Amino acid sequence: MAIFHFSVQVIGRAQGRSAVAAAAYRAAERLHDDRLDRDHDFTNKAGVVHSEILLPEGAPERFSDRATLWNEVEATEKRKDAQLAREVEFAIPREMNQPQGVALAQDFVRAEFVERGMIADLNVHWDIGADKLAKPHAHVMLTMREVGEEGFGQKVRDWNRTELVEQWRERWADHVNVRLAELDIDARIDHRSLEAQGIELEPQDKIGPAASRMGERGLEAERIEDHRAIAERNGDRIIADPSVALNAITHHQATFTGRDLAMFIHRHSDGKDQYDRAMSAVRASPDLVALGKDGRGDDRFTSRDMIETEQRLQRASELMAEREQHRTDEKSREAALVSAEGRGLLLSGEQRAAFEHVTGDRDLSIVVGYAGTGKSAMLGVAREAWERSGFEVRGVALSGIAAEGLENGSGIASRTIASMEYGWANGRDMLTSRDVLVIDEAGMVGTRQMERVLSHAEAAGAKVVLVGDAEQLQAIEAGAAFRAIHERHGGVEITEIRRQHEDWQKDATRHLATGRTGEAIRAYADHGMVHAAETREQARADLIDRWDAARQAEPDKTRMIFTHTNDEVRTLNEMARDRRREAGELGDDARVKTVNGDRDFASGDRVMFRRNDRSMEVKNGTLGTIERVNEQNMTVRTDDGRSVSFDLKDYRDLDHGYAATIHKTQAVSVDRTHALTTQGMDRHGTYVVLTRHRDGVDFHYGRDDFKDESRLIRTLSRERAKDMASDYRQVDPAKEFAERRGISFGERVAEIVRPIAEKARGIFDGLRLSLPGQDRAPSPAPERGMFDGLDLGRFASAPVHDPARQQQRDHEPQPMRAGGLRGAVERYAKALDAIRQTRAQGIDPMPHQREALDKARDALDAIRPEGSTDLNSAFRAGPELIREAAEGRGHEAVRAMQAEAEIRIDPFQRADRFVEGWQQLQRQHQELVRDGNFRAAKTTAQHMADMAKSLERDAQLESVLGLRSRELGLEIGQDMGRSIGRDLAASIPFDHGRDMSRGMER
Length: 1002
Fold this sequence. Notes:
By secondary structure, the chain is of the alpha/beta class. The protein has 6 domains: 6-191, BirA Bifunctional Protein, domain 2 (2-Layer Sandwich); 219-305, Arc Repressor Mutant, subunit A (Orthogonal Bundle), CATH 1.10.10; 323-494, Rossmann fold; 510-717, 3-Layer(aba) Sandwich (Rossmann fold); 821-901, no CATH class; 907-969 and 979-987. The chain has a 6-stranded parallel beta sheet with strand order 15-14-16-17-13-18, sandwiched between helices. Strands 1-5-7-6-4 form a 5-stranded antiparallel beta sheet, sandwiched between helices. A 5-stranded parallel beta sheet has the order 19-30-29-20-28. It is globular, with a radius of gyration of 33 Å. The two termini are 55 Å apart. Keywords: Conjugation.
């Protein structure tokens, strides 16, 4: 598993260090130190696979010699505590080979250091550890003064900024992840601190075997000891709480392999002994959920936390999908539609259906729209209808530019989800039952974040509208929440393309949306919009030529250049700006110090804001044109027509705005696009970049990246959709998704999270036990015998997993899901209530009544596996729910069924119910004995014996109850090998209780 390591330190005389000695060690060379008049000889050092000095423009050629360079650095610095050089060290993914790793380091060093004016001494080390695994990394020594033809000048204080280091860390992560994607390597790194990622581990420096040997010679012993101490503390944390490791691994991926786990533990432990203990702790943890083997034969896992998060998400979405509290009145709908028509906006049939859907009474609405189908326009009409009905409408999206696109396209005041959650954490901007929350580009929202938002909205009684396309850019964090919610609850789809003007382009967009990437690319090629060049460099030049010609021919048209990597964006921005400078379209240059380094800006320049700022009302990705600029101030006319003036010492997150990465494009719509494709793209990015235009696109590639069009299509058709842990227990679309990823095992998470043993059913008949989270007033005891003779739930006395039944389900046609879960619950309750009323008259149920109950049960179980089992448990605990649901008021029944499902899969909640029921029976028994009613007491004792015997079928529950012996009236400290069920049976008073106990032993 690729790891993130990026550290920066200063080499200075105050620590007694020499720049010449440091350079000699890192390059494994022998260098003479003029200041100390001695040689530093490290020629015996192994593992250095690449060494070079990279000079910025204008630097003297003599500095290409390592000894000359660093001796001159030493001679330039006079102070005894002088800072001599800055060293950057970063880990190279071991998934790469040596040429790939060297090229990765070279490209990054040139882009981030050399172009800023630093001289970089780059050395790539490829050490092999004691575990026989490669530990590739790079050391980069950087000069700290400006350099010209005469040599070194003043020190550049701007290079010492703390925020610059954080920028380098982020850019390194981006650089690595793009290259990993280009090489089709399934690994990613994260530049954020462990704390920022919510990982409860300490950050560690990377210490390779060479550094370890230095420790043996007394060199850098303190640093090595610190590293090992941190690694040991992290290993101890993992051993004490294995969930720390599992939560860290599942931060970006819902499922993971055994190799991912091993690499993570190796990184965060010290020595083989601790590694073995940490691996054993994680593998033995109840929080580790094994899913089976994937298509490559590797074990695949997830965490209990991920499963529980998905369950909470499912519960919140189901409750909202069944709740009906936000109907928009008809007058408001009609007024909004009339108002839109007055502005020239006439909704299409699909848009009108989506409008009716989102303004309906359900608290959860889902709209799936292909790119360019006018989702924002439809939402603008819906916003007016909501507001006319008295609702407050809010909009959020994952990125600032997507939030801005939603606001501009629909008029819904929008912000980022992170900003909204920050407000909630500080008690501000909480949702209420009068709120409608629109989440745009919902396909990019990870499972954990989606769960937090939907759970908050469900608790507040708010309505949520999810809008997006699961086939476009994938979530950055783990999971595919939007896809999963849509698959479960359905929604409205908008497929009529409105952005493109040509019919064949609309067809191409539909091809991209449905995974037929090759057909779309061939269509654009047939119309002369796919351009091949011999090299990527030539493709880049061809792109700028076409862009320049097109903008001069049609100056009133909007256009944008798109590509996959930040490095390519930088290059294309410079090339486009040079063309405008040559055409005399720009004013005088002003050199501006931005967070990305020095940039020349001029009036007329296109500029992109790179950080959200609410006071300026700009987002990360906002585009504009510079009106005035000098070294202190800038005024920009944003593309939405606002004039923004600011001081450059307060806001420096700027860059040129001619080109952008694909991730900046999902909310963009322009007349024409120009795209440079690279090997890191997949079908999701291709879908986005080929659907931003209205009129046309010029799609460029180099044959050094793609040998021919066939290879281009194969690469750009790669499927990289993210998964959910729950994907591996479905039998419908999600199961097919899992199979596409190479997962070929059968029953997955459902069997893992359920108790291994059977569940006790029917043992609480006649008891009124409260359900978790319910406040309903007590109801009368159920009518005795009302369930007699009924097959309530078909699984009442069957194992949790019934393969025969599952196989039958797999081949049965799926019923229509009209009304969703709540409708199925109400139909089941209606069928059950009809039988109950028939029995109350002393008549056996009619055949058609039993058939209706069977069909209703099958329909419920098709929507919610084991739904009838959970619903029957809810009906036993609250019989009044049957009549409520039968009369069309099934919301409380759905809640109770959810609670029963949680109890069924959670042994700790089942233990709570068992203890409560046992204690209630104990009290009832004591009261009956005290009153002399021994016959009733015997019946109660029989119930207690049935409860005790039920533990034979639920070993997991019995294990948990072993920790609660005292609450059950048993002695603590009894033999752990004994059965709690037998002990409970033996504790039942009266001879009949002991007889039953003996019966159990027979």
